[in-house]
Amino acid sequence: MSSKQGLSEALKSMSIRDDSTHPWHKYYKVDPPKKEPKGYKQLLSNCSLHQVQQFRNISKKVWLTAKRTTNPSKTNKTTFLTSDSFPSTPFAYYSVAYKTPTFIILTPVFNEVVADDRLDLRIVALNKSACDTINPGIIDFDDHPQRKKIIFLYTKNSLRKFKKIGGVFHTQPLAASFCNIIACAHGFCVFSPFVFCFFPLCVQTLSVLRTVPHGNRKNNFFSLCHPIGDVLCVTKLQPKQTLANKKIDKLVMDDVKSVNGKQFWEVSEFYPMKNDIIENVVTTPYFENVSEKSKAPRKLMCVGSNMGNIFEISESVAPKVQVNDILLTSVFLPIIKPGQFLSSLEPEHWLTVAKMSPKLRNSNSYLPVVVKSKIASENVKRVFENYKEAFKVYPREAAYNALRIVVEHGSNGLRSIKDSKIDQHQYTTKIESYKMLDSFVNFTFKLIGASVTPPAVKWNRSVSIKIISPICAPFYAEVLGAQKHGVDLKVKARAPSNTFTENILRSLKNQEISVRQRREMKKNEIDWNVQKGSNADKFIQAIYGGPPLKIPKLPNIPRIKIGGLELLETQTRYAQLISNENVAAIIGSSSFGCGKTAAIASAALYALKNDEKSKNWQMLTAVTNSAVVALVEKLVQLDSNVQIVRIITPANMEQVPSTSLTQFDYPTVLCELLKEQLIKEDVNSMNYDYEIPEDLVKQMLAYLKKNAKSTSFLKSERLQRLVKNAKHHNESDLLNYFMDFKKPTIIVGTIQTILNSFNMSWRPFIGAISNIQIDEASTVPRETLLQLVTLFPNSRYSLVGDYRQLSPYFEQDASKLLIDTAIGETLRDCVEEDLLPSVFFNGVFRCPPEITEQLGKLFYNDSLKSFYRNCETVKELEKCSAWRLNCSNKFSTIFIDTIGSRQRYRGKSLRNYQEAEIAQNLAEHLSQFISREKIAILCFYRAQMLELQDWSENRGIHVGCVDSGQGKEWPVCIVLTTKTAKVQDNQFISNARRINVALSRSRHLNFILGNKKSLSGSDLWASIIGTCKKSNTLVASNVFNEIINSDTNSAEDLQDYDDNFEEEEVDDDFEIIEHE
């Protein structure tokens, strides 16, 4: 039977015989297209989503009575993606992110529209030359950023919109829609379930989509998001050539786009049918005339949604679960008016109990929602139990699929927790006061409770905000804290000072502004289609149960010298491994102050020297901009002629202080190059070495105009004329021109900027990166690391960091399952389990020998070596009274017992006024002998830090939290522990990694302010205090104040310290949870 005859017969069989025998009537009308295919008849339906019980009964009856030609798959028993779903049930699966006393926060795991064990469902992709037989013209893929993942198409006025599996690519910010495409191939026609939710303001976006012939021209993308899709009849299709010999009949939709991550079918010819929808219907008819001969190809269906909302449900809705349990929840969003709920949506209509709107809250919608939930199956739990050994338990492809499920579950969960803590409201207010500092501007504004009371808990934490004002460009700021004033909230924030001028600040005061907290951008996706045998494949297998990578035999070579710096033996070995093509990945396990920044920079320069012929690039990256700047400075220090490009986004340049910018920042250097070349073109156009093509000149001018760069330097009439006509530029062309001209050899940037840039305009240069060194790798989440290695599959990787210091940041109330799956501790696992070749940097240059020895015994198995050298700062410190405390025993850690001080609660954090006053006096005393920027006050608790930041604003003394001090150093550090209630080993302040960071930031002298009796409840703190006591550097705060205020007192006065001083016990009702 020909394809046209098959289509004709199928359409005839779908004709309406009479209303009583056919279930689809009245609500769904499809008018024939202008070019009517043979056998086309009108198709109607009489069942809507609102009539759920009627629809389910009819759909189930049709489903069960249909003549099946294949056996059901075992999907229900092997995966949670379609368990307990009926045909055409619109749903999205969610799992537990974390629990509160009242609610459970659910995060999306996977979304789909139609599914059950139907082997005839296939995912469809269009050929690049796919043809619309009614509306001539090919589909334009070229400009779409997700063109490799496109499987969706729907039309409006002949304009096509493409979407990808599991999400909708759209630009309309308020609408969250739920769309899909339906395809009919060789006689089987399906209609999509249309379920969507949007804000009341977006109701008018609901419209009927029509297909209008547009003539013989190329189709474009339609940028708005609409909730209705078109029905497509596919007349020609074939399996992909690469899959032709695969047994694709046995693949079901739940295999998630596989084989090997490819779509199953390619459509080469189709036509759209015009929709005229009265009510939204959900139907998946299964026709009785399916014959064995027509089994392949059969009905095709594309599925997916953008239901990315998080949900907060009452514990009474969900089964009783532990935080780490996987709770699978189907969320249904019926289209009804706000505030109403149909009586037909009763619990008995669902397979399991369903609850209604009053029991559920959705942060992004006012529409009712129905939920059914259950604990995940044992098979699903087994995937989560075995994922760490995935490549030992499963075959390679199944292992990657298991990792995809597990990692996406974790990352979605953590993102949902963060989103749930963001205040979604926008406030109109005024800046009440401001203060200009060296690097930042601090300002205050008041959020006034009107329609909504500002939630203090969501503002009394470090969060990014966007501020819009009519008198200047929008800018970003960081919230420092908030205090309640009745129903109002007074917020203190800071923004980089390079964003403002004094005039702008004066104008902003008492000017009406709009303030809103910023949501974290969704991170780049992990490309799980990892090439077999690539470096990325070897790395991922090694950390997930596959064979570990072994260190190759290396020849013994003399210690390397780079730019006058002679590396240690361990650093030399590390540089050797970086340059070895047979090493896919290595670990640079470091200690504090070991010169790892110098080792990374030296290794990059050494690799360039040994790899001059290939002309490949080195990449250095880190989590923070401060670490990136340190890498750039060290590279320049070692080789002033090295060609560096530091990638930083324009938005980031506006948010960071000037100290986080460099002379190598792209795109600033691009603007400078364009200006320089245009001046040459302008002045020397007659005898210039080479002429820039006019099209490229226009792009240069357009780029400068877009970035608000003046073009007044142009003199020639030709270029002045081109300025007026320069409207468009292609950043890829300009980037290619820049790279050809500058010929950089080292690319530097934060990990997130590298990911964003190389997923977009820098993508053509992925293959040019030979080595990627990651500084502070202990703070890189596993999800981010996987994104990086899969983006650069053939590069060699090096993870450098100290896993004995702070691990990646995570929300404290996240479950252990989410933290393990998305955050993890890759660096520690690789070292302790010997998964990757490792070099230990154990030479400490930063700290005095006694600090190195003490911390080495506590945290590094007594394996550190000191290479400390005195400097001018030490000579200056020797003049101050505080230095005399360590002169007899040469011990550079001084513990000041803050007897009589009391902790106070500020929200869920702590402050201590007496301790803060001692720190201020000490810092002022030290500043008489050394410059203020050499002094840092590091606080364990955020409230104490905020208390001291007010005092330090214009003094030039650094005040910050311990966590943010990781990776930094100062000549003198004053560490504030603040807590005076009893301390135990399992608490925030007793965390070994945090203590390690706090005490290893100083180059010369450490002062610890704390309550001796309180801290002695922790074994670690007791050991530190005991060492200070033996070294005669334990002093009571009152004695210490006398010493720094007098020139006559000396270290002998410490004998007056009464070790048995009794003080009042302070109750501690709950443990403080701090996070920065």
TrEMBL record:
<feature type="domain" description="DNA2/NAM7 helicase helicase">
    <location>
        <begin position="576"/>
        <end position="808"/>
    </location>
</feature>
<protein>
    <recommendedName>
        <fullName>DNA2/NAM7 helicase-like C-terminal domain-containing protein</fullName>
    </recommendedName>
</protein>
<dbReference type="InterPro" id="IPR041677">
    <property type="entry name" value="DNA2/NAM7_AAA_11"/>
</dbReference>
<dbReference type="Pfam" id="PF13086">
    <property type="entry name" value="AAA_11"/>
</dbReference>
<dbReference type="GO" id="GO:0043139">
    <property type="term" value="F:5'-3' DNA helicase activity"/>
</dbReference>
<feature type="domain" description="DNA2/NAM7 helicase-like C-terminal">
    <location>
        <begin position="837"/>
        <end position="1013"/>
    </location>
</feature>
<dbReference type="InterPro" id="IPR050534">
    <property type="entry name" value="Coronavir_polyprotein_1ab"/>
</dbReference>
<dbReference type="InterPro" id="IPR041679">
    <property type="entry name" value="DNA2/NAM7-like_C"/>
</dbReference>
<keyword id="KW-0378">Hydrolase</keyword>
<keyword id="KW-0347">Helicase</keyword>
<keyword id="KW-0067">ATP-binding</keyword>
<keyword id="KW-0547">Nucleotide-binding</keyword>
<dbReference type="GO" id="GO:0016787">
    <property type="term" value="F:hydrolase activity"/>
</dbReference>
<dbReference type="InterPro" id="IPR027417">
    <property type="entry name" value="P-loop_NTPase"/>
</dbReference>
<dbReference type="Pfam" id="PF13087">
    <property type="entry name" value="AAA_12"/>
</dbReference>
<dbReference type="GO" id="GO:0005524">
    <property type="term" value="F:ATP binding"/>
</dbReference>
<comment type="similarity">
    <text>Belongs to the DNA2/NAM7 helicase family.</text>
</comment>
<dbReference type="InterPro" id="IPR047187">
    <property type="entry name" value="SF1_C_Upf1"/>
</dbReference>
